[in-house]
């Protein structure tokens, strides 16, 4: 039965909202420079990637081969390979973080999850779901973990295995925790390498850090056990998604053969999206590594320029190194709502994504509004 006129109108209204706002949300980590029209025909199929993409499923409508290509790309990006690591396409960063913590807990049932105060709010949900002990550690002013506070917390709990939830780019300030520092503090606290687990939350910056000059440590070669990246953030996808990678020795602990699907089950969910691997695959395949690097470098350059322009207007904007998140003093509610800026405490942020590089008119408006908002505030005080 076709939709009624009213229902069609409702869909049209939603379509108009999406079209008008697609490139305008400057406060949220979303790249919208994608064109996936070649994949539209796949929307007519009941694709389902249930199980492990590396096996032959008894459910033929799957995109396993493409998911495998995606995982291989991320393995290379994070200096591993499919012999040593396994991963899958998730529903987003939160699922990947939960998977990392799940693997950690299976290895260390009495472990304690350590994370900084600036960590994404999903971590609390995850430790509650998994019933893992946790310890929130102070952050530095730039949002990076306070390593002295971490060491003190580790020393206070010497008998329980640390599960470190490190940020490779925090949500609000784009701060990157220093893996070398973390490992050093673990060593100072008396933990050997096989006595702790290191998970990296790289939801947004996971697609940025590999493409910067002189990147900080972020990979399996630097000692991580697992990493989670969102696909709909810096990469860009119309459906939320992500990837998680972990060392095979950890994944093997949770793998079970399931007769019903004639495959091994290693994932958190049962049925899995078969379309999102195609979006990720298309992104990976339709530009060279050099072009991916340029895409990131352009965002970082415009973020730096934005900081400079705001500073020239005496607004104390700043950004962390290797981050396209521009942090500004929180403006009036009228301004942060008008431009969909994310706010926390006394700051707001602007995210410079590829669509803003292509058309910076909205960014220019935001800058103008921040400057006049500050002038108004000064006049009033
Ligand atoms: C640092 C960080 N971790 C995790 C998440 C959660 O990711 P998702 O929304 O893809 O589940 C976010 C989302 O903004 C984030 O910024």
Automatic annotation (TrEMBL):
Its cofactor is pyridoxal 5'-phosphate. It comes from the Bacteria. Its EC number is 4.1.1.22. Pfam families: Pyridoxal_deC (PF00282). It is an enzyme of class 4 (lyase). The modification N6-(pyridoxal phosphate)lysine is found at residue 233. NCBIfam families: PRK02769.1. This is Histidine decarboxylase. It comes from Bacterioplanes sanyensis.
């Amino acid at each position: 039965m076709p939709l009624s006129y009213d229902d069609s109108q409702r869909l049209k209204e939603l379509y108009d909202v999406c079209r008008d706002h697609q490139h305008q949300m400057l406060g949220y980590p979303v790249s919208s420079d994608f064109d996936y029209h070649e994949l539209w025909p796949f929307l007519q199929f009941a694709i389902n990637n249930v199980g492990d993409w590396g096996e032959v499923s008894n459910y033929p409508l799957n995109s396993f081969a493409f998911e495998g290509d995606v995982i291989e790309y991320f393995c290379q990006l994070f200096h591993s390979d499919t012999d040593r690591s396994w991963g899958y396409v998730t529903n987003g960063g939160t699922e990947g973080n939960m998977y990392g913590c799940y693997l950690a807990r299976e290895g260390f049932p009495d472990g304690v999850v350590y994370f900084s105060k600036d960590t994404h709010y999903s971590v609390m949900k995850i430790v509650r779901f998994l019933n893992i002990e946790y310890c929130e550690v102070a952050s530095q002013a730039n949002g990076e973990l306070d390593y002295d506070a971490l060491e003190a917390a580790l020393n206070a709990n010497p008998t329980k295995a640390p599960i470190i939830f490190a940020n490779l780019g925090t949500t609000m300030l784009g701060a990157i925790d220093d893996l070398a520092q973390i490992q050093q503090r673990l060593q100072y606290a008396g933990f050997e390498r096989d006595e702790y687990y290191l998970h990296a939350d790289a939801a947004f910056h996971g697609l940025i850090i590999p493409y910067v000059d002189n990147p900080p440590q972020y990979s399996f070669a630097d000692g991580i056990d697992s990493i989670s990246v969102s696909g709909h953030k810096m990469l860009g996808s119309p459906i939320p998604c992500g990837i998680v990678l972990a060392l095979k020795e950890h994944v093997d602990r949770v793998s079970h053969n399931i007769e019903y699907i004639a495959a091994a089950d290693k994932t958190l969910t049962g049925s899995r999206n078969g379309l999102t691997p195609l979006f990720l695959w298309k992104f990976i395949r339709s530009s060279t590594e050099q072009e991916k690097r340029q895409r990131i470098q352009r965002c970082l350059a415009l973020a730096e320029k934005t900081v400079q322009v705001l500073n020239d207007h005496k607004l104390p904007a700043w950004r962390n190194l290797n981050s396209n998140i521009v942090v500004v003093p929180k403006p009036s509610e009228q301004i942060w709502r008008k431009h969909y800026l994310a706010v926390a405490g006394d700051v707001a942020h602007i995210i410079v994504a590829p669509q803003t590089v292509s058309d910076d008119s909205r960014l220019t408006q935001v800058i103008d509004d921040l400057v006049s908002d500050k002038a108004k505030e000064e006049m009033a005080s």
